[in-house]
Amino acid sequence: MSQDSTERIVTALREWIARAAPGARLPSNRELTLQHGASPVTVQKAMRRLSALGLIETRPGVGTFARAMRTARPADYSWQTAALGALPSRMPLLSSTQRSAAPDAIALHSGYPAPELLPERLVRQALARAARLEAAVLRSPAAGSPELQAWFAGELAAAAPVGVTPASARDALIISGSQSGLSSIFRAVVGVGQPLLIESPTYWGAILAAAQAGVELVPVPAGPDGPDPDAVERAFAETGARGFYAQPTFANPTGAMWSETTRTAVLEIVRQHGAFLIEDDWAHDLAIDADPRPIALQDDDGHVIYLRSLTKSVSPALRVAAVIARGPARERILADRAAESMYVSGLLQAAALDVVTQPAWRTHLRGLREQLRARRDLLLDALHEHAPTASVETVPRGGLNLWVRLPEGGDAEQVVRECAVRGVILAPGSEWFPAEPSGAFVRLNYSGAAPERFPEAARVLGDVLSGS
Amino acid sequence: MSQDSTERIVTALREWIARAAPGARLPSNRELTLQHGASPVTVQKAMRRLSALGLIETRPGVGTFARAMRTARPADYSWQTAALGALPSRMPLLSSTQRSAAPDAIALHSGYPAPELLPERLVRQALARAARLEAAVLRSPAAGSPELQAWFAGELAAAAPVGVTPASARDALIISGSQSGLSSIFRAVVGVGQPLLIESPTYWGAILAAAQAGVELVPVPAGPDGPDPDAVERAFAETGARGFYAQPTFANPTGAMWSETTRTAVLEIVRQHGAFLIEDDWAHDLAIDADPRPIALQDDDGHVIYLRSLTKSVSPALRVAAVIARGPARERILADRAAESMYVSGLLQAAALDVVTQPAWRTHLRGLREQLRARRDLLLDALHEHAPTASVETVPRGGLNLWVRLPEGGDAEQVVRECAVRGVILAPGSEWFPAEPSGAFVRLNYSGAAPERFPEAARVLGDVLSGS
Predict the structure, then answer these.
(1) B319 touches A: beta carbon within 8 Å
(2) Ordered alpha helix ranges (H), A188-322
(3) Which residues of chain B make contact with A244, given a CB cutoff of 8 A?
(4) A115 vs B124: CB contact, 8 Å cut-off?
């Protein structure tokens, strides 16, 4: 009887699903039990059958839903090819750093720290508190919440040297993550078809945002101490560029930190050319052996446009960052942000401000520094022992990554593929170059995977490199 | 003694402020009382003095802060004028709808509903629950949370007629508010210098996003039943445009609703021209006398790009919306979103999904409908009685606004200014026209201010119009 009942329910539900809209919610198991006069076990059996047939999907705690049914006519969107035209520019859809990895893989490819390195308790408490504020039901001003603006401006102001007028709260524009800041700055301050100096290698997200904005990139090679100021001067003189995008502190991916001499010289060159330095201080909270001293601290003429995000240090779910810019540049960037997204959720702003103004935030950052140090050193040691032909030229004094040069003649993409087959996910270096890569590199994030698996990961890389 | 003490505290604090960073928090009044051995009244007097001198600002419930101090050298950002060049296009910084009004003013200018029309309890509970989820500390996928994608797709699918294959969950891209969707669609699907048909009048945010994307607008006049399909046909034929941005249901600002005939005809014209209809269903949750039937329901060839936001119905702090697009257009839009902002906060997505899947959400929407109806009718009656020369040509069957034509020869900007002086804030109609306004209009939002003040507001408008 149970077999027959199961069959009967399956048939009835197949008919129901065929008529239902995809995504329609099925009656609950309880309702089906009553409706078909069947036992709960029989209904469950029927549901398992439908699930195995791919006709339904169960979302635990939500319900069971009809899956989209294929119609006879396959969709044909080929007309769009004419409407859309050729691709406007090199726009990679997804960086390899954003791919998800199998749960048992050792993931060294991501750009984000593991949740255990985040101030999780603070974040959850701040969000719960923010849920009770007015910010949960009101619109935020376009420039951001005045309190959060004041916090970002105050952080810089507190470190400003005597004689330099620091930026005011008004100059700090709240944005939802630094990526949207890059997009707006490139559109509003550089502009379509205009040249922009950029370090090479550098953050792939900046290369992507520049491609989207239609900006012409002018790569400037950057070593462990930053770029050669003479090369920066030449690039400005030759191209007439009015902007230079750079990560002077714990650069992604190389970990490079500009020397004091380079900082002073580049700011002076930027001034002489009537240009902007777009300073992306992405790792401000991710210091290990050195404290960030943004170049923005030295500037009160509006030459430095400063980007500072909390996404990687507070939580990737609190998409909150600031652009600090002065003068007409501020107005242009704000106008672009307003046109792009109107305003940033006031709830996220309130929660972010809550986190960074807790005394426990300072404690968290001190602990984070030690954890990053331990992880960095563990991965360095593991590479040294198990993958001796992989060379790390700069030991990063902050940030999340090791930038690893492969032996002469190595093929980074090939190495990445072979490591992936063996369960270790790396990011190929090519994504960080605005032009052809200057060598074979891979980037290893030491803040993502469990550190106890670093030796295993290094062994896999060593094996792949030695061809064993 | 009190006078002297006040002076002493003022002097001490002036010195403190001169050394402090701008934005630094002053000691609390309690601390100052103890520190200076003064009475609370004396300390308060000193604070008022400092405030009058412009040296401090008090933020109630937060604290008192040093204002930015001017240094001797005034900032000179004039070099930026050369670096930035002329303004790229008409980019108004702030719509009059986004201005904040004095607390005692009757604010009919805003584009948002008052908090009492939001499902506040649901939102706060959802946020508190989301704070405990993984979504609070993880990065969301670029396309959005699969569950929320499925919800948006399912909403359309549930209403799709037989024979039309509805969009799948994958086709729903989660974005942070519909403004960012407009920006991405205009950039990714239309492109710089390309023509885009647009209703006139229409949503100012769409005009702004088009200006930012460098799109060439082709205005098509739209009456209470929508645009004349012949005019749409001519505009496509003359310009070779590949896109038409429209709000077929409860259009902002006019409240117009396209007739069935117009819907069918325009979709057919769009198909024949191998073009996209960008359907902004902004008021999907704000129906009064008619239920929204998106044109997207009729399309399975990817001609309709559908925009649907929860910002105005759930909460302005839950910046969550979806673009539903199919085929290569989906890929282009997703690539643009990824370059622009990487991903949307998973926390906001989880909270939004929580709200719209609660049974209480349906109850809320039913109540909202009645409240909007009552408010709309109250404002209509008040205008009829107190401002008879102001004419409302279309009684909106949904949405938040009355579109009011002023008497022949009226000057909308002048009327808005005079009403503002008398404490009633309206929005001048010119902001909704992609070209010259076709007449003198003002827009009145009946969902913002307290409805009991509508008669008062209508009297002020009537007085201003009659010159009394």
Answers:
(1) yes
(2) 204-213, 229-239, 260-272
(3) none
(4) no
Q: What is the pTM of this model?
A: 0.84
CATH topology of domain B2-66: Arc Repressor Mutant, subunit A (1.10.10)
> What residue type is A189 in one-letter code?
V
Partner A contacted by B19 (CB < 8 A): no
Tens digits of per-residue pLDDT, B182-213? 999 999 999 999 999 999 999 999 999 999 99
Nearest CA in chain A to B189: A84
Contacts of B252 (CB under 8 A, 6+ apart): B111, B202, B203, B282, B283, B399, B400, B401, B432
Nearest to B339 by CA among A187, A21, A244: A187
Question: Is 90 exceeded by the pLDDT of residue A55?
Answer: no
Best residue of B132, B332, B343, B347 to probe chain A, by most A CBs closer than 10 Å: B347
CA distance B413 to chain A (A): 22
- B96-115+361-466 CATH pick, 3.90.1150.10, 3.30.70.120, 3.20.20.70, 3.90.76.10: 3.90.1150.10
3-state secondary structure A43-86: HHHHHHHHHHCCCEEEECCCEEEECCCCCCCCCCCCHHHHHHCC
B280 contact A CB<8A: no
Please write the tens of the pLDDT for every residue from B374-392.
999 999 999 999 999 999 9
- Residue A222 pairs in a beta bridge with A227
Side-chain-side CA neighbours of A102 within 13 Å: the count stands at 8
ipTM of the complex: 0.84
CA distance B265 to chain A (A): 19
CB–CB contact A214 B208 (8 Å): no
pLDDT per residue as tens digits for the range A401-457: 999 999 988 899 999 999 999 999 999 999 999 999 999 999 999 999 899 999 999
Phi, psi dihedral angles at B263 (to 5 degrees): -60, -50
The domain limits of chain B are: 2-66, 96-115+361-466, 119-358
Of the listed ranges A26-35, A374-383, B177-186, B295-304, the least confidently predicted one is A26-35
Q: How far is B257 from chain A (nearest CA, A)?
A: 26
Contact B147/A59, CB-based, under 8 Å?
yes
Q: For A330-357, what is the mean pLDDT?
A: 95
pLDDT (tens digit, 9 = 90+) per residue, B119-153? 999 999 999 999 999 999 999 999 999 999 999 99
From chain A, the residues in CB contact with B181 under 8 A are none
- Whether B86 and chain A come into contact, CB under 8 Å, resolves to no
Question: Please, are residues A44 and A5 in contact by the beta-carbon 8 Å criterion?
Answer: no
**A62 in B contact zone (CB under 8 Å):** yes
Spell out a b/e string for A232-252, using b for 16 or more CB atoms within 10 Å of the CB, else e. bbebbeeeebbbbbbbbbbbb
Amino acid residing at B69: M
Neighbours of B62 (CB within 10 A): 11
What token pair was written down for B234?
């001519």
Residue in A closest to B114 by C-alpha: A138
Give mean pLDDT, residues A146-150: 95
Decide if A177 and B98 are in contact by the 8 Å CB cutoff.
no
CA distance A84 to chain B (A): 6
Q: Which CATH architecture has domain B119-358?
A: 3-Layer(aba) Sandwich (3.40)
pLDDT at position B93, please? 58
Element (H, E) at A278: strand A276-280
The minimum CA-CA distance between A396 and chain B, rounded to whole Å, is 25
Radius of gyration of chain B (CA): 26
Unique residue bearing structure tokens 């039990």: A33
- Residue A1: pLDDT band (50, 70, 90) is very low
CA B186-B189-B194 angle, to 5 degrees, is: 70
